[in-house]
Amino acid sequence: TWDWNQNVIERNVSSSLNFTCLYNLSPTRDHPCISWGSLSKTIPILLFFPEAVVSKDGSISSVGERYNMAFKIVRTESRLVREILTNHGFHEVHPNSNDFNLMWTGSHLKPYVLRSLQDFQKVNHFPRSHELTRKDRLYKNIQRMQQTHGFKNFHIVPQTFVLPAEYQEFCNCFAKDKGPWIIKPVASSRGRGIYLVSNPNQISMTENILVSRYINNPLLIDGFKFDVRLYVLVTSYDPLLIYVYEEGLARFATVKYDRTSKNIKNTFMHLTNYSVNKKSSDYVSCDDPEVEDYGNKWSMSAVLRYLKQEGKDTTSLMKQVEDLIVKAVLSAELQIATACKTFVPHKTNCFELYGFDVLIDSNLKPWLLEVNLSPSLACDAPLDLKIKASMIADMFSLVGECIRLFMFYVSKRKKHIFQCIEFLNHQISYQYES
Ligand code: ADP
């Protein structure tokens, strides 16, 4: 089901900077975790292996030691990140230390921290990423793209109003579309503070909130609603480089879906967040990492296999998902690239892993619900560990963490892991306009 990605890669490889020569990187005989770009034998590229989480292989752990690599973790738990880096021989330094190659933080970075970065240092956030990850900012940026590039080209999010500012506009819209509508705090996560309404007077206006049109025809599997978490890595905003991880997680509701409004208050039916549904006595977890289509959390590829068997066009679905990801990132590109120019001293200092939440409706149209800053790397089930450890290992390989100099490459280890949707600057927006 992923053949189309191969085309995307090849198309971009041939049209891009120096991907062609970096493309076939593979471990050297010298060390399993080191690759030398074919351009130069002076720049080692470190390869990361998910196996490091479970086995303490000496040859893997010697790589970080050989180059004296150091990392620090600030304001986040991130056990998985710590384990992968430590088991590759990276040394952990105190959160206040400036002596690091990699900083992994759970929150935005202050301008003075960014300004002090040296060329060999990397941090896992771009400045102004909240243009994507705050629900109200994301909607406003996409709305602006709808106005400038055509509504239908950017019809990727449900119609949304920011209250109290747009209360009147919402009431006018409500007169035509009775909903239901879904209410969300502007800067919250994990389903907190979310509820459905069928009338504006059910809205409590104690804080800034978003009111979005509720997608009431979700695609169901065995009668249950689900959404998909995709992992998207941006390694540069200028030029824009986006990678989509080939695997994701589908999270299922715990109560069968019913379109009638009598169950409007049942969060176990309407919200698909793991943090909500794990509280339900009906939540089913799966203990076998090889079984990917059982219980309330499936791998995305298991969902795609299921849908394909049902006769659904999953190739077209995933093309639309890719399109939605690119468009969402484009909508915030200018602000983030400008902030990078202002605050970030070196082009290779920042990278970011975003968690995209996508809901598919019964017409097989994907909708972007939100983009998460610091997506959860918790591994409550074996399937989480299997997917997230590979994803994190590949992310670090891709980010090209190495001594003093960094290069980008696409891993070709077992199979293509991060799929490259790389393109040069604004090429894509012309495409959408035509
Ligand atoms: P949070 O950041 O709190 O998780 P989300 O925007 O992801 O907020 O919404 C939580 C859940 O609510 C989603 O996983 C999805 O199941 C449901 N949901 C959110 N928005 C919509 C919508 N417009 N239509 C249908 N379901 C939605």
UniProtKB/TrEMBL annotation:
The molecular function GO annotations come to: ATP binding; tubulin binding; tubulin-glutamic acid ligase activity
Q: Which GO terms describe its biological process?
A: microtubule cytoskeleton organization
User: Which InterPro entries does the entry mention?
Assistant: TTL/TTLL_fam
- Specify the protein name: Tubulin--tyrosine ligase-like protein 5
Similarity comment: Belongs to the tubulin--tyrosine ligase family.
**Can you name the source organism?**
Astatotilapia calliptera (Eastern happy)
Where are the bilayer-spanning segments? none
Matching entries from Pfam families are given as:
TTL
Q: Which UniProt keywords apply?
A: ATP-binding, Ligase, Microtubule, Nucleotide-binding
Q: Which domain of life is it from?
A: Eukaryota
PANTHER family, from UniProt? TUBULIN POLYGLUTAMYLASE, TUBULIN POLYGLUTAMYLASE TTLL5
